[in-house]
Structures are given as structure tokens and as C-alpha cells.
Amino acid sequence: MKKLLSVLIVLGISIGAFAQEVGYGVKAGLNLGKYSNVSDAAKDYQKMNPSFYVSGYADLAVAPQFSIQPGISLQGKGEKYDFDGDNMDGSVTTNVMALEIPVNAVYYIPTGSSGSVFLGAGPYVGYSLSGKTKVKGNVGDIWGGEGDYDLKFSGDDKDQKPFDFGVNFMAGYRLSNGFLINAGYGLGLSNLSPSDNSDSKFSNRVLSFGVGFQL
Fold it and tell me: How far is residue 154 from each of residues 164, 175, 196, 212, measured CA to CA in Å?
């Protein structure tokens, strides 16, 4: 993970040295997160967990209509379950706040004087800063009863691994005045489970929508 982070940083610096033009942007919006590899029994109750994200980035133009965008982002992730049946009536919500460094390749498609459509993709590395699981109502004894539980990201009894990596995909529209709207999808490739058991492996899946401004 540290090697991957170093590669992304060096890549961003190297590309910046050859950039023909440099712009800067900020984005913020809604995240809808969940975890992969959910059991068949739990899938019926799994919901998208709403959170938020805030990102800052540089837009390094390396060719006409093509840029590389290294950035830094605060990302809300996690999952949610709403139970109604099987002698359960309640919810379990896990919220995780993570710091990410993405490096996206972005292609702009001009649409006349009004602006440009943009499409992008690229890798990211992330580190979980904090997390909490909240249990409400009757959800059995699996989560230890109703209440709030801080997630542990270190030690022998940790709940999740803190490091994450994956691939981002995004699309949107940038107006000629710099205002932009965008949607994205984060495909986590890292197993966040502290257990080596293949049945317990899970990764992040995050759908996002937002607005921003790019100079």
C-alpha cells in the first residue's frame, strides 16, 4: 500500500512537470456507500448508506482535451441495513471517514461555447480516519445490542483494515464559467476484513453525485 501511494505521488509530480496548463478545482456532494460480498441472507436488507465527500484537485493538461487530475479527498463511506422480518425490526449503520489520494485521467469533449462533457478514471489509495457502527431497534445479538460502537482500525481486535485502494470512474459536465456537475463510482479492490477467511472479505462500493468549480 505504501509503495502504491508513493507511485501515485511520484506519478502526479512527474506529470505536473510536463503539463501544458495547470488548473485547480474543488468538488463536494453526496456519497452512497455499501460493502461488497454480502451474504445472500443479508442482501435483502442492505441499503446504500448516505454520506458526503469533499475533494480538491489539480487539472494538469498534458494534451488537447486530455488532463491528469491528482487530488486529495475526504470521503464518507460505509454501509447500512434495515431489518424488517425474521424477528428483527431495526437498523445497523456503519459510517467511515477516509482520506483518499486519487489520480484520474480525464478526457474533455467540447459541446460548443457552453462547456464540455468529461469522462475519467484512475486509481486511488485511502486511509480510514474514523468509524462508528450504530445499532437501533431489535436486530438480534449479532451486533451486540442497541448502541454506538467505535470501529477499531489497529490492533489484534480491529474491525477493519485502515488502508484501501481501488479505481474511480467519473462523468459530468463543466460549463464554460468553470461550474461543473458530476457523478462517480468508487470500486474498492482492497479486502478490508482483518480476517483471512475468504467468506468474510469485503470491499468498498461508493456511488457519488456532486457539484464543483474548476479554474
Answer: 14, 44, 16, 35
Determine contact, residues 78/91, Cβ cutoff 8 Å.
no
* Helical (H) or strand (E) element with 67: strand 66-85
Q: Are 89 and 137 in contact (CB under 8 A)?
A: yes
Cα torsion angle, 75, 157, 36, 121, sign:
positive
Q: Which residues contact 179 (CB under 8 A, 6 or more apart)?
A: 211, 212, 213
Residue listed under C-alpha cell 469533499: 54
Question: What's this model's pTM, rounded to 2 decimal places?
Answer: 0.85
Per-residue pLDDT tens digits of the chain, which is 215 residues long = 555 555 555 555 555 555 568 899 999 999 999 999 877 777 778 899 999 999 999 999 988 899 999 999 999 999 998 887 666 778 889 999 999 999 999 999 999 889 999 999 999 999 999 999 998 877 665 555 678 889 999 988 899 999 999 999 999 999 999 999 999 999 999 999 988 776 788 999 999 999 999 98
Distance CA(51)–CA(37), nearest Å, equals 21
Determine contact, residues 135/149, Cβ cutoff 8 Å. yes
Cα separation, 105 vs 119, in Å, equals 8
Which of 70, 90, 53 lies closest to 15, judged by CA?
A: 70
